[in-house]
Amino acid sequence: MSDDLRIERVSITHPDARLLVEAVQEEYVARYGGRDDSPIDARDFEDPLGSFYVGYLDGVPVATGAWRRSSVRALGAQVTAEVKRMYVVPAAQRRGLARRMLAHLETTAAAEGIEALVLETGMKQPEAIQLYLSSGYEPIPGFGYYADSDLSRCFGRLLRTTDL
Question: Is the pTM of this model over 0.90?
Answer without folding.
Answer: yes
